[in-house]
Structure formats: C-alpha cells, structure tokens
Recover the amino acids of this structure.
C-alpha cells in the first residue's frame, strides 16, 4: 500500500506492506539512527517523534503514520546538538547504541518541561534503557546543560 | 613523570567518537554493511537434550527466496571452542557448528539463509525435525559423575590440563591451598559457613550479537563482527570451517556494548558458514530472545565459604569451594571459576594464615555460559564479602572496622593471588574516603522511617586483575603521517569504553602533541598489530604499555630522520614537542618536515610497532557502600545511595573511569535485585526478553557517587592498572548486607526480590 | 512473528464493526501486545481516523475515547483533579513515556489483561464501556463476559467519587505490577479493585461493613485482612500467591489510610 508522510521535514511517498513496522521503514529510508534493541517495546532505542510526540517506532505500523509527520535524530541534529555536547563532556555516551533513542526522548522532555527537576528527568527517561553508563552521567550532562542555559539566559 | 606534568593523560577529554554517537551517525555493523545480502537465521532446539533422528528441509527449500539450508550433515566434523582466548585455549573443544546432539533449549539445529526475512521465517517453520528426546541434566548439583553425559562424543578434547573429563561431565576441576586450612579453622573462635548462589545473568548489551560476512576479491572470507576479539574470531572461524587461518579477515566497527559477551564467538559461525558455502554475502542479527537464550551469560555458581576468625576479628583462614555451571558447552568454564577464589581470598591477605580454594565446573543442559564483566570474581566476591559481613554481625563489629583490620595492604605478598605482591594498593585509602563520603557512621545504624520503612547500609570490597599475566599480548603501531599527525593502530576493541581515546591520550602524551593529532584505527585482523583483544581488564594496562613502548621507538626513528635533515649525528638530537632538535638548541626540524621527508627519498620507516605482555596482573581495588530503604510490608528494596571509591592506579581519563564505575555498579545492582534466570521443568529459560529479564532503569538505582584514590602502578602506562571489570563486584554483597540489617535475613541467593525479602526466604 | 495481509483505516465505526467480525481480523490498539505475538492477521483494522483519541468532559462523567493514549490519562488535569492523581499513579510506572504514548485505553480495556493497571482503576471507579455492537454496559459486566468480537468505542468514567486512590507493587520501577489496588469512595461506600493477582482485576465491596463509613487504623487493617482472605491469588514469574496475599493486606490498608488522609 502507498503512504504519504512528512519525514524530517520532507514529504515522502512510499510503498509499504501492511505489516511493515515504522522502525524498519525508517531504517530502509536512511534513518539509521533508529535502532532496535528488543522485541518487546522495553528498551526505548527506537524512539522517534510522531507529530512531535515520542513513540516507539518498533510498535507502530508504517501504514499508521500515513498523513503524519515523523522526525528522527537525522532531522533534529541542531536541536540535539544544543545539549549532547554536555553528555559528551561527561563521557556518558559510552557505546552509543542507546543514544539516539535517549536523545530523541530528551528532546521531547525538554520541549515539555524546559526546566525539569532531576526526578522529572528520571521519570521521563525511564523507558530508555542504557546498559553502559549507569544513567548518572546522562543526568549530570542534562543538568550541566540546563545550568548552562540558565546562566546564559541570566546574562 | 609526575602526574601534574601531564597534559593529556589524566584529563577528562571527550571520547573521540562521542559526538558522532550522540548524534546518531551510522557507525555500527548494521548501519554500514550492505542491506542486500542473505538474511541468516537459526532453527533452535525446543528440547534441552535430544538427538536429531530425522531432519527434512525439502519443503522449506522450495519457498521462494530461500537460498540455502544447512544441517549437521553439512558442517565440518572437527570440534572447536567459541571462547575468545589465547591458543591453546583452556576451554575444551566441544562444539560443532551444528551437531546431531542438541544440548540446550535454543541450541542450533539448522541454518537458513534467504533473500529476505519473510522467506527465512517461513522456511524455519517448514523444516521438519524428528527428535529422540533424551533426559537432560538440569540440576548442576547432580551433573558431576551423572550417568547422563552432556558430551559423550569421542571427538571431545581438552587442550590444557584443567582437570576436564567429558566422561564425568567435568569441564574443569582443581584444588590449591596455602597452609593447613583445616587445622587453622579447627582452632578458630568463630567459623562462618555459608553457601552463596548467583545466577546466569545476561550482559544485555544494547546491540545484540551480529555478524556480516562476504568473500573478498582475493577469495578470502571477510568478516565484520560486533566483537571484542578480532584475532580470536579469525582463529575460531578457521577452526569451525576447517579452513586455513590465512583465508579469514576479521574487522569490527563501533560496538554497541560487550561486557564480555562479545569475547565469545556467538553469531559469527552461522553467516560465515553460509558465505563460505554459497559464496554470497550474508548477515545474522541476533534477536533479543536469542541473546537471552542462546548467548553467553555469566556462569551460575554456588560458592561454599568457610571463614575462620578470632574473637577480636582477625581473619585467619578461608576455605572456598566453587561449583560452576558452564551449561552445554565449556566456553570460559575452566577460567572464570578461578577468579571466584583468586580474586576474593587475597582481599584478606593481611593476617590470613591459610587458605584453600577448590572447584568443579560442570556441564549441564542449560544455555552455555561465557565471559561477563567480573568473570567469576563477581560470584566469589559476593560469597566471601557476605561471609565477612556475617562475621561482623556475629562479632558485633562494624564491618568497616573488621575490614580495616584484615584487608590487604600495599607491599604484601598475596599467596592466594599467585604470590603476586600488592605493589600499588590504596584499598585502605579507598575505605577511609568511602566511609567519609558515604557518612558511614550515620548510615550504618538501622533507622526506622515510619510507615513500615527502614533504612540500612552495607559495605563490600573488591579486586580484579589487569590483564592475564604471561598470556595477554597488547600491541600498537604508531606512524608519522603527512603534516606531522600520527596514526595509531591497535587490535584492542573499543566497545564503548573509550579505549580508542584512552590509548590516543597516551600516544599524545608520549609524542607531546594534541589528542587531535592522533588518529586511531582498530581493530582489523589484517591491518592491526596483534592484540589478544579487549577483555580481562587488559586494554589500558597491557595495550597502553605497548602504546608507550611504540612511541619511544618511533621517537628514536624520528630522531634518525631528523638528524639526517639537520646534518648531524643521531646522538646530537632529541625529540621535543613535535620536532627534532639539536641538543645545543641551535636548530630543529618540525614533524611536518620529517613527515614530508619520510615520503621522499627516505629509507627509514617512520613507524614503530611494539608488543607488550606482563608477567603480573596488578589488581585494582575498590570499596562500595550502599544505603537502602526496605519496605517491611511489601519487601521492596529501594537503593538510595551508592558510594564507591576506586583505586585503578592512574585514571587515564577520569570521566571515562567514572562512567565505567557507575555503569558497573548499576549492572551489579541489577544482578543483586532484579535480574533473574529461571527455567521450566524442561529447561527453557523464562526470562527470555527485556520484558521478563529486568534491567535496572534510571528509577531503580538511586544516587551514585564515585571517587578515585589512586595508587601508582610502576609497571603500567602512566601508573595505570584497570577499571573495566572490578566495578561490578561490590553491589551484591553490599546490598545483601544492607537488606540483612533491615530485615534480619541473610540472602545468600541472588537476586533478592521483594517476595524473598518479605517472606524472609532465601532460596 | 506477526504478519498482516491487509491494513484498513476504518472510516466509520460501522465499517470497523463489520470488519472485525471475521476470525483473523484484528482491531489495532497500541499494538504493543499484538506485535509480540506469533500470529497471522488477515486484516488489521485501525481506528485512528475516527477521532477516538479525545477525552471529553460532561456534567456527569469523563469520556475516554478508545484511542486515547495512556500518557493522556497521566497528564489530563480534569481526570487527575477528580481522582487526586490516581490516574497518573495508575499509568506512570508502565515502561516509559514513549510506551504510554503508544498504548491506548481501548487496548488496555478490551484486552482485559490480568496485569492491567488501568483496568484496576477503572473498575474501582465503576466505569462503563460503550461498544459498537453490544452498546453500553458496566466495565465489570464486560470483564465478566467471555471474549467477543466488537469495537470498544469509549470508556465512561462517572464523576462523583469522593476519594480515589491507586497503589501498585512492582519488583522494579517500570515492570508489570505484582499486585494492583484501587479504591474509590462514593456516597460513603467503598469500592475496591484488586488486579495482577495475577489474574484480571476483580471488584470487592465492604459487605461486612468493616469500615462502616469510617476509616481508622484498625478498620483499615481489618479491611485489608478481609480482602487478603477473599481475593484469590495465584503464582507467576514475578511472585507467588502467598506473597500477593500478604501485600494485598498492606496495599488495602495503606490505600484506605491515604484516602482518609486526603479528605
């Protein structure tokens, strides 16, 4: 079947099978940041934004995004670039395989809560598993970014 | 060189690949290998133990898109091991790519390759197999000398004298001792006895096992794999396919985590066989379910401890017996078990008069175990550290004070650690600092918070090694290139740990250049200098030293070329900050000019390769303290604070060392509290997904605080030891003690679930 | 492995209802559960074009469209004001934000899953369901019926509860619950729902009058003990019946005391 969507700001017409998952569709269309880490919707690696809302692309049919707007990390490089340097400064990226999903959900977090508490950060990102970092460095990075942003705004 | 003089080493610089990874750039195997290759999947056994009586693939082969199906009839009949270890491997040669006998639920029965996933999936369903179902060995207590043999085959062989005997289901067996343990124990005021059980936990790296294979233009098998061990993969695949080693070329890209899982060949053999037989490119990507059920988890162990002490808290004797379950195959079986004693007992060297350490490693019809961060030390330290905490409780002593009295100190010879001397040991300072940071005095007493909630704390120490003494080889090649930058080639594998960056930091320090002047390449079995691989906490210590040596040699070569350019004898120049200059300071030639010269009318190679190996394996040391809140009405355990102080020698990159520590602690918390492995009566694993096998989330780990108290290891690069593995070892014993303090029950069986806590059950 | 032959975005409830009568036709919810199944689906029926993703408020109730994501229950001010945050409590532990943006009210309710947090809360609130074929009926009645082919259109959550509380016990923060407990008080009477037993949530009332309209430490304890005796518990991977029975008592007692505290 044919679908029409907006992928990272560009209109896209594509032919998909009824059971093609959005995750596989996106990887096939060059969005290689989108990763699969499990088959049970538990890891958060495949997080993308659907009309601005973070969703698991492993659990969505490509057919379902017909007429909608999908963003992956490929399309949000600038917004991500604003804060990921602070994660890098902690060394918290580690193996990096979970990073795109984590970064996508952090983008959603920061849009929804521009000034989150540590507890809000932990709760919002709870669905993003990371086996390397122990999470604390990711939190330090986000906190450092928020502090930096506040200091900039104060000036 | 004093620490403060370093300009790159000891600095928290960014990992070289950090931004690419954070911005989701294509960097991993499935991002970079061709999509239009054969999809490879494996049909897996539903039985724990069976013989294939008949296997009919004809129907499956007729499905459009199916390219090839292989069964046990199609594979070489020479046994091999998939363990990534230095040859001759201690792990027995007990595998075939496909065997007529299947030995665990999930064992490989057939390999299917096809043009697309749908065709392969259909084919898997169409293969008809008739099994002769055999009684399995599922209880590892009864495996040794059981009438049912997991490996009755004549072709089984063990290359090293590890006490293995397939006619007894034994993968390894040994006893070693120092002094007369029984006599000392008989004379002790206190003898604590306990049996401590840990499960076959999964590394659960986010990127599952995966391998791509193709035939290159030279007719060789080109393998791209997510592996920690490119050189071992070369040997293992050549053994498995029974082809010359020269026919195999292995490389790796970025790895999405390893933790030891990728120190074993897991996925590689399947696409390799397909490509070798069909000549076509092939790829296998493990599902998470396959990772959980046909991977290479931690060895389940039961560690029996007898700990003898005086009433004043002097620990006099330790008797440790470990029963280890290697599962259906022996990968890492003979070696992991050794660490359960050799890296727990030496912590108490101080006044220990005698020790004994014995073990049996048995085959069962469970998933084959392998290497997982900590590699047996984790299991042994849970046992010995808990026994020490039980002793503290029995004596009414503060467990910190008890340890301060008994811990190994700098300069002591450790009989239980192959008589190595603890030349660099800041364990005492780690304890002092950890106590301070954690506020031990306030947190150790049990505090009732009302509403059924109680707070309490626990402590544990740990050690590990830095590489395998006398075995591991690390190598580095450093080369001067255009305009004066350096290429550093290594065979070690950065699996996210940051070793590419850490080794580059060392090279930059040695060559007195900036980190950006060092480009790192690795790992590729054709192009990299030989390296055993990244495991056994070896890369910083062993390969790091090779980098240091290679840099020294390169400097000498640069001086030769520089002297030619300066028209003076070699003795009259020295290497100094991106230049070679005359000792009298009268003239110098820049690296850029030397690089230019090296490419025009030059006969001196401006590159150097050095290997390094170490006769010793200096242990890093660590102290961890945990505070928990236990809900006495539900059994919930909430980790509030975890404080750790580590002596890894010099932290080459403090950021990366800290994150290693934090990551290891959270994995350790997972092992202690959440990550369970249970089986159906038929031997099928129930926790076969991340839905059932619960990794800690960021809501499950409390607040972490990590600091370093560094010793200086003279034999290591810039005083470094290791960090990668030790960090997983303290949570289980520290948490078990905290929970005991809150509830009065010692949990000697992991994981400690709310149900066990509430019902006071330890099973 | 899930395969789907055909995908249909329903243009009306009538069409969806008609389509779903066939054996191998499936109505899509959030697809989180469906996706994990090894199953051949003929036609997947998607309700996403029917405007069922809205929460509307009437004088007497909140109406939750079948396609409302669980995340909306967490953030909806009206629902959470009415239940003092019980809606948020009932979903916030489910895997993660992205998961809850996918999972739907309809999927949770129509599946009548044993582990369902949402079902537990809705049962305590005496919600009603509107089905395209069967019409409107109480959620409790719907749960009691054997599975049948229909389209869940919306869930009606009546207003008027004086207090609502939701508690769950989990082995780790975002895991399935080991036990769920929701309590709603309406006109002085209490309605309890206990789920993840591990079977589907069931409703209980204070028939013995243990609370006799008043919550005290003693009466809460008595009620907890009473329910822990009455609620049938079983074993699963996460815990056994004995454990569930024990914590049932604690959750009910704590829930009641929390209700009283909030008054």
């Amino acid at each position: 079947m044919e679908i029409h969507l907006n992928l990272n700001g560009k209109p896209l017409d594509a032919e998909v099978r009824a059971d093609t998952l959005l995750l596989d569709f996106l990887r096939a269309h060059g969005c290689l940041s989108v990763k699969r880490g499990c088959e049970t919707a538990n890891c958060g690696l495949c997080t993308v934004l659907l009309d601005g809302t973070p969703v698991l692309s492993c659990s969505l049919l490509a057919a379902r995004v017909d007429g909608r707007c999908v963003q992956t990390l490929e399309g949000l490089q600038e917004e991500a670039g604003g804060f990921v340097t602070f994660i890098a400064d902690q060394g918290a990226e580690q193996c990096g395989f979970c990073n795109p999903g984590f970064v996508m959900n952090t983008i959603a977090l920061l849009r929804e809560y521009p000034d989150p508490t540590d507890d809000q950060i932990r709760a919002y990102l709870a669905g993003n598993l990371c086996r390397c970092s122990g999470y604390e460095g990711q939190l330090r990075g986000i906190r450092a970014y928020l502090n930096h942003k506040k200091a900039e705004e104060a000036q | 060189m004093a620490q403060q003089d370093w300009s790159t080493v000891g600095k928290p610089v960014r990992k070289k690949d950090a931004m690419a990874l954070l911005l989701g750039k294509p960097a991993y195997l499935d991002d970079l290998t061709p999509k239009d290759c054969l999809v490879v999947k494996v049909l897996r056994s539903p039985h724990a133990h069976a013989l294939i009586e008949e296997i009919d693939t004809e129907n499956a082969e007729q499905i459009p898109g199916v390219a090839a199906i292989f069964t046990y009839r199609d594979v070489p009949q020479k046994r091999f091991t998939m363990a990534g270890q230095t040859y001759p491997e201690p792990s027995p040669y007990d595998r075939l790519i496909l065997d007529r006998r299947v030995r665990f639920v999930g064992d490989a029965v057939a390999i299917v390759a096809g043009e697309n996933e749908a065709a392969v999936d259909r084919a898997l369903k169409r293969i008809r197999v008739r099994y002769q179902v055999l009684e399995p060995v599922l209880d590892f207590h009864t495996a040794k000398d059981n009438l049912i043999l997991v490996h009755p085959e004549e072709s089984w062989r063990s290359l090293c004298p590890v006490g293995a005997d397939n006619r007894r289901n034994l993968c390894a067996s040994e006893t070693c001792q120092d002094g007369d343990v029984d006599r000392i124990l008989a004379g002790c005021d206190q003898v604590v006895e306990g049996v401590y059980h840990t499960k076959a936990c999964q590394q659960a790296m986010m990127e599952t096992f995966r391998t791509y294979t193709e035939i290159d233009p030279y007719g060789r098998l080109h393998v791209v794999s997510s592996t920690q061990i490119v050189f071992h993969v070369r040997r293992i695949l050549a053994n498995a396919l029974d082809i010359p080693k020269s026919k195999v070329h292995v490389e790796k890209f970025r790895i999405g985590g390893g933790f030891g899982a990728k120190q074993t060949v897991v996925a590689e053999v399947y696409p390799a066989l397909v490509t070798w037989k069909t000549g076509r490119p092939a790829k296998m990507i493990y599902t998470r379910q396959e990772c959980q059920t046909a991977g290479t988890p931690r060895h389940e162990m039961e560690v029996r401890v007898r700990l003898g002490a005086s009433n004043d808290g002097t620990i006099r004797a330790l008797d440790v017996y470990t029963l280890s379950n290697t599962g259906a195959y022996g990968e890492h079986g003979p070696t992991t078990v050794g660490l359960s004693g050799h890296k727990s007992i030496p912590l108490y060297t101080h006044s220990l008069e005698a020790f004994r350490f014995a073990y049996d490693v048995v085959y069962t019809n469970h998933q084959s175990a392998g290497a997982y961060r900590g590699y047996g030390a984790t299991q042994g330290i849970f046992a010995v550290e808990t026994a020490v905490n039980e002793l503290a409780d029995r004596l009414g002593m503060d467990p910190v004070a008890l340890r301060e009295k008994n811990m190994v100190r700098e300069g002591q010879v450790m009989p239980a650690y192959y008589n190595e001397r603890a030349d660099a040991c800041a364990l005492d300072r780690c304890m002092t600092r950890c106590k301070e940071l954690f506020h031990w005095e306030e947190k150790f007493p049990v505090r009732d918070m009302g509403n059924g909630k109680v707070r309490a704390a626990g402590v544990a120490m740990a050690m590990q090694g830095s590489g395998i003494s006398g075995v591991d080889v690390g190598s580095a090649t450093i080369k001067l290139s255009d305009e004066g930058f350096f290429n550093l080639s290594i065979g070690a594998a950065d699996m996210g740990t940051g070793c590419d960056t850490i080794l580059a930091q060392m090279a930059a320090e040695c060559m007195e250049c900036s980190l950006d002047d060092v480009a790192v390449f690795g790992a590729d079995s054709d192009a990299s200098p030989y390296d055993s691989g990244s495991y056994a906490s070896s890369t910083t210590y062993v390969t790091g030293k090779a980098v240091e040596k290679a840099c020294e040699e390169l400097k000498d070569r640069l001086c030769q070329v520089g002297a030619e350019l300066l028209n003076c004898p070699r003795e009259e120049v020295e290497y100094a900050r991106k230049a070679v200059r005359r000792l009298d300071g009268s003239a110098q030639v820049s690296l850029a000019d030397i690089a230019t010269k090296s490419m025009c009318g030059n006969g001196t190679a401006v590159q150097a390769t050095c290997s390094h190996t170490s006769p010793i394996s200096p242990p890093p040391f660590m102290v961890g303290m945990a505070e928990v809140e236990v809900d006495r009405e539900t059994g919930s355990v909430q980790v509030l604070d975890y404080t750790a102080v580590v002596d890894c020698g010099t932290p080459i990159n403090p950021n990366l060392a800290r994150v290693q520590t934090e990551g290891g602690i959270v994995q350790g918390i997972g092992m202690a509290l959440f990550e369970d492995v249970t089986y159906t009566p038929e031997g099928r694993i129930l926790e076969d997904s991340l839905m059932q096998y619960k990794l800690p989330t960021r809501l499950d780990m409390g607040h972490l605080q990590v600091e370093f108290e560094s010793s200086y290891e003279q034999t290591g690069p810039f005083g470094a030891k290791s960090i990668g593995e030790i960090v997983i070892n303290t949570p289980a014993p520290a948490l078990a003690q905290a929970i005991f303090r809150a509830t009065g029950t010692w949990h000697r069986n992991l994981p400690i679930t709310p149900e066990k806590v509430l019902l006071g059950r330890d099973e | 492995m899930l395969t789907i032959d055909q995908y249909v975005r329903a243009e009306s409830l009538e069409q969806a209802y008609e389509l779903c009568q066939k054996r191998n036709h499936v109505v899509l919810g959030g697809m989180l559960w469906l996706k994990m199944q090894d199953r051949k689906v003929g036609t997947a029926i998607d309700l996403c074009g029917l405007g069922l993703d809205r929460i509307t408020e009437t004088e007497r109730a909140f109406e939750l469209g079948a396609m409302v994501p669980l995340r909306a229950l967490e953030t909806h001010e009206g629902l959470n004001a009415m239940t003092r945050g019980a809606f948020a409590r009932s979903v916030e532990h489910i895997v993660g934000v992205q998961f809850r943006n996918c999972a739907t009210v309809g999927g949770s309710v129509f599946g009548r899953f044993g582990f369902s947090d949402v079902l537990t809360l809705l049962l305590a609130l005496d919600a009603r369901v509107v089905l395209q074929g069967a019409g409107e009926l109480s959620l409790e009645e719907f749960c009691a019926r054997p599975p049948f082919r229909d389209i869940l259109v919306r869930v009606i959550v009546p207003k008027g509860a004086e207090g609502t509380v939701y508690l769950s016990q989990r082995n780790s923060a975002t895991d399935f619950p080991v036990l769920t407990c929701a309590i709603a008080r309406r006109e002085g009477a209490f309605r309890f729902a206990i789920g993840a037993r591990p079977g589907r949530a069931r409703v209980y009332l204070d028939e013995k009058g243990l609370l006799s309209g008043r919550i005290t430490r003693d009466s809460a304890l008595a009620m907890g003990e009473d329910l822990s005796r009455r609620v049938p518990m079983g074993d699963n991977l996460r815990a056994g019946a004995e454990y569930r029975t024990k914590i049932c008592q604690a959750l009910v007692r704590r829930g009641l005391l929390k209700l009283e505290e909030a008054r």
In short: Chain A is about 40% helix and 15% strand.
